[in-house]
Amino acid sequence: MTKPLLSALGGETLSRPPFWLMRQAGRYLPEYRKLRQKAADFLEFCYTPDLAVEATLQPLRRFGMDGAILFSDIVVVLDALGRSVGFREGEGPILEPVRSLGDLDGLGPERIPEYLDPVYETLRRLSRELPPETALIGFVGAPWTLAVYLVEGRGKTDCGRVKSWASETPGEFRKVIDLLVEGIVSHMINQAKNGAEVIQLFDSWAGVLDKKQVLEWVIRPTAVIVRRFRQACPGVPVIGFPRGAGELYLDYARETGVDGVGVDSTVPLEWIRDSLQPVCTVQGNLDNRVLVAGGRALDEQTARILETLSGNPFIFNLGHGVLPETPPDHVARLARRIRDWNGA
Ligand code: CP3
Question: What is the third-level CATH fold of 4-339?
Answer without folding.
Answer: TIM Barrel (3.20.20)
